[in-house]
């Protein structure tokens, strides 16, 4: 009773306060059933109280800025697809904003089917689309892919597409993009993600970036400009045939055997670059690279023998092996000039928008007989004065001047006077430079024509060395012009300054002529004038050969090699260190955060689910018969008894094969084992089984279970060793 009295007293004391409170509308009742979908996400609309309604003089409150809630909340919706997709990323993506749109490509003057410039490099587009996953650091793969490749972003970029047909496989052409557009993409990735990606030597070695042979059958042709995957597919499906020629393009001779083999190998490597990594193919390319380096080094040594800078075993009674002594460049060379050769260097310039239109031919010659009593000088400076040069301009194309890809200087010949010749007479003028007096002309020397011809035997056939920078391209141009130097019976071989410089600097990739001239302090003015380039190429050859001979076997050369090796090693170590740090950072970013979260269910795509269901429903040939698949070399046995409505069969199995057999339970309680490339075996029977497996290795294993009845005789497979 006392408690009831106290309760009544408390009600009287608080009743006045409770009555003064505003009346509040009842809250809606929430349904927790599966039909409604759970908690209502829309904010509740409250009735304003009388107290707040009466006070109208107060200013409206400032809007409240609600920051994004980083803790995601989820609700369950029946039959809805989950948006949670766990991925293999090591750390959360750092991409927070979309990259800036790429700059528009400049206007191209190429038409569909036009040949591209022969000296340019290209990238297979189907290899480039795999760049984030195959050619760059895995720690950045997802960030790069999300920002520039996934969801069709790669194909919506503007690409200038080129095509080239294989010799044997004519099902589809190889589609390429220009190296500069690949570099533009890397620049955008670097700017957006603060990276330092670049085209590596290894990527070039793996045929991600390549230069194709200079022949109309092997050089890429322009296909068109693509801005979507639909554009790309339509262009590929409607690419011109392999026999297509642009308007006005003459029919040239078929590629020679050497060019054809190089093209086939390049196409094979390019198609391989579009596939997954292949260790066997990489090892094969490594072996081919070592053989190629040996061939290039031998070419370098022969060049020095021709110039008297290295002894010849047949002439100087020198040992074929061992390092020869260094040469003093201030004295005449101590060794004989092997083969008494004449170097003939050729450079050809063509119009950049129609490469079959040859505009200039430059020829520089150097007779080694004139070098006998002259010291080479530092980097061959004294021998440079003995170079003779000619510059021929083709009259029909004199109005065509390159300016888009290179800056042409057809009027800037600095080593004599240019000679204007007709297209029909050009082969004769070029051929004259391969025979006495080997380019000697009153326009390139102070002597008169009589003095130049004095003492020259016009009937003598001297040994010729064809020289160039990227020699095969110039040979092809001369053939198209109507003069084939390969057919000269006194031509010993063709040398290439690009190869010589690679041997000298031990580099994997060729270097431009301008960079070589800079390395030897040669003032290379008005490059891309054919006459100037021919002279500069000859000077570069002398500089490379003489400098190596002058410091051969010295501490200076050892120091230079050591510094170059240390620089390359430091660069490789820095790249490896950065890669290791990035990978370690990815693992440790969330090491102390969280407890692992909730379990992640296994998610199978519809295709994987259908495949698994089809495999589980595949019946065996007969009850008690099946084939094991296993890894390892082993033998095992299984025995069991099956029971059905018709018969009872006791069975056993004999297993033989290479590999490790991995038994598993089938869906009907039998035994199921797997291996690569064999058969599935199941015992759809209830019973018991035992087995043992031994061995190591890879291969196929098989097993056959059979019953003790007349219709099923025992069968055993022999070992596959």
TrEMBL record:
Feature: compositional bias, Low complexity: 603-617
Biased composition annotated in UniProt, kind: Basic and acidic residues: 580-593, 677-693
InterPro entries tied to this protein: Gfd2/YDR514C-like, Gfd2/YDR514C-like_C, RNaseH-like_sf
Residue numbers spanned by region Disordered: 14-65, 580-721
Occurrences of domain Gfd2/YDR514C-like C-terminal (ranges): 342-543
Protein origin, superkingdom: Eukaryota
Pfam family for this entry, one: DEDDh_C
One term under GO cellular component: nucleus
Family annotation (SUPFAM superfamilies): Ribonuclease H-like
Regions crossing the membrane: none
The protein, known as: Gfd2/YDR514C-like C-terminal domain-containing protein
Organism per entry: Ascochyta lentis
């Amino acid at each position: 009773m006392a408690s009831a009295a106290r309760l009544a007293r408390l009600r009287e004391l608080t009743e006045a306060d409770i009555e003064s409170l505003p009346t509040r509308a009842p809250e809606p009742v929430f349904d927790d059933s599966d039909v409604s979908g759970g908690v209502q996400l829309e904010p509740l609309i409250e009735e304003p109280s009388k107290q707040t309604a009466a006070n109208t003089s107060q200013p409206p409150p400032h809007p409240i800025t609600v920051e994004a809630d980083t803790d995601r909340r989820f609700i369950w919706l029946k039959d809805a697809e989950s948006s949670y997709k766990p991925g293999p990323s090591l750390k959360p993506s750092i991409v927070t904003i979309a990259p800036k749109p790429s700059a528009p490509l400049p206007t191209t003057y190429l038409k569909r089917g036009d040949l591209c410039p022969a000296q340019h490099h290209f990238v297979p587009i189907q290899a480039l689309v795999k760049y984030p996953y195959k050619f760059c650091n895995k720690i950045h793969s997802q960030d790069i892919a999300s920002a520039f490749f996934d969801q069709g972003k790669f194909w919506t970029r503007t690409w200038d597409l080129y095509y080239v047909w294989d010799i044997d496989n004519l099902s589809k052409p190889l589609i390429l993009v220009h190296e500069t557009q690949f570099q533009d993409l890397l620049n955008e990735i670097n700017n957006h993600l603060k990276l330092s990606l670049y085209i590596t030597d290894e990527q070039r070695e793996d045929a991600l970036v390549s230069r194709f042979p200079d022949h109309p059958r092997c050089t890429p042709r322009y296909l068109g400009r693509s801005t979507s995957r639909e554009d790309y597919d339509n262009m590929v499906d409607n690419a011109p045939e392999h026999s297509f020629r642009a308007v006005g393009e003459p029919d040239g001779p078929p590629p020679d055997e050497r060019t054809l083999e190089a093209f086939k190998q390049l196409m094979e490597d390019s198609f391989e670059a579009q596939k997954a990594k292949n260790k066997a193919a990489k090892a094969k390319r490594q072996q081919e690279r070592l053989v190629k380096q040996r061939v290039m080094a031998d070419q370098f040594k022969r060049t020095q023998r021709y110039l008297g800078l290295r002894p010849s075993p047949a002439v100087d009674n020198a040992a074929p092996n061992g390092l020869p002594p260094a040469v003093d460049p201030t004295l005449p060379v101590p060794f004989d000039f092997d083969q008494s050769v004449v170097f003939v260097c050729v450079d050809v310039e063509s119009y950049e928008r129609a490469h079959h239109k040859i505009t200039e031919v430059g020829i520089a010659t150097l007779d080694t007989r004139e070098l006998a009593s002259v010291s080479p000088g530092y980097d061959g400076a004294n021998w440079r004065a003995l170079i003779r040069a000619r510059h021929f301009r083709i009259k029909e194309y004199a109005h065509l001047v390159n300016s888009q890809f290179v800056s042409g200087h057809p009027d800037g010949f600095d080593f004599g006077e240019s000679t204007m010749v007709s297209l029909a007479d050009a082969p004769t003028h070029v051929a004259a430079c391969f025979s006495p007096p080997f380019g000697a002309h009153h326009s390139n020397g102070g002597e008169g024509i009589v003095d130049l011809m004095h003492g020259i035997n016009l009937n003598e056939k001297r040994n010729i060395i064809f020289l160039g920078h990227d020699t095969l391209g110039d040979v092809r141009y001369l053939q198209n012009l109507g003069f084939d130097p390969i057919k000269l019976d006194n031509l010993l071989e063709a040398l290439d300054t690009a190869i010589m410089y690679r041997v000298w600097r031990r580099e994997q990739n060729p270097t431009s002529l301008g960079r070589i001239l800079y390395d030897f302090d040669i003032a290379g003015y008005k490059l891309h004038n054919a006459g100037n380039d021919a002279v500069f190429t000859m000077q570069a050859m002398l500089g490379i050969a003489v400098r190596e001979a002058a410091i051969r076997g010295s501490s200076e050369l050892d120091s230079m090699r050591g510094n170059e090796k240390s620089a390359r090693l430091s660069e490789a170590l820095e790249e490896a260190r950065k890669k290791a740090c990035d990978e370690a950072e990815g693992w440790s970013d969330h090491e102390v955060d969280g407890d692992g979260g909730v379990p992640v269910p296994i998610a199978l795509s519809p295709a994987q689910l259908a495949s698994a269901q089809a495999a589980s429903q595949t019946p065996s040939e007969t009850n008690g018969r099946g084939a094991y698949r296993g890894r390892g070399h082993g033998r095992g046995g299984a025995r069991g008894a099956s029971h059905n409505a018709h018969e009872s069969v006791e069975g056993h199995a004999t297993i033989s094969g290479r590999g490790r057999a991995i038994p598993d339970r089938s869906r009907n309680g039998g035994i199921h084992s797997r291996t690569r490339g064999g058969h599935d075996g199941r015992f759809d029977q209830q019973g018991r089984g035992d087995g043992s497996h031994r061995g190591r290795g890879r291969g196929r294993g098989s097993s056959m279970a059979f019953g003790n009845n007349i219709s099923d005789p025992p069968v055993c497979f022999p070992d596959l060793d």
